Amino acid sequence: MTPHAEGTPDGRSEPGPGRWSDLGRPPLNAAGLRRGLVRAGGLWTQVDVVQRTGSTNSDLVARADAGGLEEGAVLVAEEQTAARGRLDRRWTAPARSGLFFSVLLRPVEVPVARWGWLPLLTGVAVATGLSRAAGVDTALKWPNDLLVTVGGEERKAGGILAERAGDDGVVIGVGINVSLRDDELPVPTAGSLALAGAVSTDRDPLLRGVLRSLEDWYGRWRAVGGDPGASGLQETYAAGCATLGRVVRAELPGDRELVGEAVAVDGDGRLVLATGEGVQEPVGAGDIVHLRAR
């Protein structure tokens, strides 16, 4: 378990070496985040900020498995050294250049069969929160990527990873590139909120905006037993999904590929592809590559 970061008198996370080496990337205000997010009757029950860790998802899953952790725990890292994406891919980013956090949810009122909507719900919540707080139009690439437009091109600025935690919990991790500069991009197809013209790269209000949006969407979804139609989730996700209407290649388990037009997201959160053979085939897992229109 990663220890909690000690706070400075102003409530910001404890400085590491070279804390002020980049004045454009101040540390998060842990005490201010708690004051703004943790409230009686609300979803968020604790907010911890650590200076550095391998993976907030791994840490929070371990803490949840150990027992005694309430729903609504939030773990934020100023820097991650072993962050994971889907298919156990690794990625890193400079300290304080983004938002790297995980949350623990226990949707016990929702049938487990509908839990697959949680990464999509999180994508909708993040896109909504960033639109309000950063003034950036964030699109969703099925199933878990966050896209921004930089110089007229789609770039990946973030991702989402959901993992089971014990019998009744799900830990959802979110990584968002906030102030990453051109010369810091890990690959040319990456982007950041700053490169997309964000009106603000102050991570404190960005994180509060995203978590408040997630609390709102999770509450709506949970209140109707996870029904994606009744909660408005399915319609909202489809409206913001950059994958729909595109010809894509689905790289599926077992070295199988499927090419077709992405025509819908079904009630189970699967991407429906219309193939050249006139068949509509739902895809529940796999990598999706956006192809140019034929």
Automatic annotation (TrEMBL):
It holds the Pfam family BPL_C. It is an enzyme of class 6 (ligase). CDD domains: BPL. Residues 1-26 are annotated as: Disordered. Its EC number is 6.3.4.15. Keywords: Biotin, Ligase. This is biotin--[biotin carboxyl-carrier protein] ligase. Coiled coil: none annotated. One of its GO terms (molecular function) is biotin--[biotin carboxyl-carrier protein] ligase activity. Residues 37-222 form the BPL/LPL catalytic domain. InterPro entries: aa-tRNA-synth_II/BPL/LPL, Biotin_CoA_COase_ligase, BPL_C, BPL_LPL_catalytic. It comes from the Bacteria. It comes from Streptomyces atrovirens.
